[in-house]
Write a structure and sequence with these properties.
CATH architecture of the largest domain: Orthogonal Bundle
Shape: elongated
Radius of gyration: 22 Å
Order of helices and strands: HEEEEHEEHH
Oligomer: single chain
Helix content: 40-55%
Largest sheet: 4 strands, antiparallel
Number of strands: 6
CATH superfamily of the largest domain: Ribosome-recycling factor
Distance between the termini: 52 Å
CATH class of the largest domain: Mainly Alpha
CATH topology of the largest domain: Topoisomerase I, Chain A, domain 4
Strand order of the largest sheet: 3-4-6-5
Number of domains: 2
Structural class: alpha+beta
């Protein structure tokens, strides 16, 4: 019998990565994970923001970034300002960096929805690659006479069923996030 658990875990990993990417997409409300992709030039190297500062939600439209070392304040503000995918303009008061979330315009919402669609397609491509890898493995085992014709067909159907399940989960997560983005 063909074991699909390996391919199921690979598909699950692709879905988890997609869900993490969704957290970074801005929806109009402030959320600390929006700044997860920001890297800061500190201590002579580039480091993720969460390793040089604490990010909290001050209110629904404001993030507050408190650096562990006040010397990194300017570098943190510059890193947030220079990230084009965020489009944010932080301000600092000498102790903390405040990142105000400007209201989303209709045009910006459409851009974010398009970005969301691109990320969903990347996930679907990753899922299809895992499916192709599984099909190649089934074919190789069938040619090596390790699997009978019937077992190979059953394995292919099971892989297709997994693919359909994960595709549905990606689609529903993308639609939920798109509804959240488009809500004014």
């Amino acid at each position: 019998m063909f074991d699909t658990a390996v391919y199921q875990s690979k598909m699950s990993a692709a879905l988890q990565f997609f869900e993490e990417e969704l957290k970074k997409i801005r929806t109009g409300r402030a959320h600390p994970s929006m700044l997860d992709g920001v890297t800061v030039a500190a201590y002579g190297t580039t480091m993720p923001l969460n390793q040089v500062a604490n990010v909290i939600v001050a209110d629904s439209q404001m993030l507050q970034v408190t650096p562990f070392d006040p010397a990194n304040l300017q570098a943190i503000a510059a890193a947030v300002r220079n990230d084009p995918s965020l489009g944010l303009n932080p301000s600092d008061d000498g102790r903390v960096v405040r990142v105000a979330m400007p209201p989303l315009t209709g045009e910006r919402r459409a851009q974010i929805a398009k970005q969301l669609g691109d990320k969903a397609e990347e996930c679907r491509i990753a899922l299809r690659n895992v499916r192709q890898e599984a099909f190649k493995s089934v074919k190789a085992k069938k040619e090596a006479k390790e699997l009978s014709e019937d077992d190979a067909k059953r394995a292919e159907k099971e892989i297709d069923k997994l693919m359909a399940d994960f595709s549905h989960r990606v689609e529903s997560a993308a639609q939920a996030k798109e509804r959240e983005v488009m809500t004014v």
